[in-house]
């Protein structure tokens, strides 16, 4: 591929940019005071390229139990 000067057709991650300073990566439920399941949830959505178009993938996570 290098010899032919061709590239893949996907976005490359921005790994060369410096990130922000240190972050607090502790469990968010501990910071907000949630002490039981089903009190705080988080959601993420993304798409997955397929042969004909793409599909969406969504996930809902309980902060306390970390169950999807």
What's this model, at a glance?
The chain is mostly beta strands. The chain has one helix spanning 28-32; strands spanning 41-50, 53-62. 7% of the residues lie in helices and 29% in strands.
Task: Give an overview in words.
With 68 residues, this protein is mainly beta. Helices cover 7% and strands 29% of the residues. It contains one helix and two strands, in the order H-E-E. Strands 1-2 form a two-stranded antiparallel sheet. Strand 1 and strand 2 (53-62) form a beta hairpin. It is flat and about 55 Å long. The mean pLDDT is 78.
H/E series, N to C? HEE
Strand order of the largest sheet: 1-2
Radius of gyration: 19 Å
State the end-to-end CA separation: 40 Å
How is this fold's topology laid out?
Blueprint: H1 28-32, E1 41-50, E2 53-62
Antiparallel strand pairs: 1-2
What labels would you give this structure?
68 residues, mainly beta, two-stranded antiparallel sheet, 1 helix, flat
């Amino acid at each position: 591929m290098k010899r032919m000067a061709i590239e893949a057709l996907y976005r490359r991650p921005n790994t060369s940019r410096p990130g922000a300073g240190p972050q607090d990566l502790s469990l968010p439920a501990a910071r907000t005071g949630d002490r039981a399941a089903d009190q705080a949830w988080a959601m993420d959505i993304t798409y997955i390229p397929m042969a004909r178009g793409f599909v969406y993938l969504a996930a809902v996570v309980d902060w306390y139990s970390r169950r999807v």
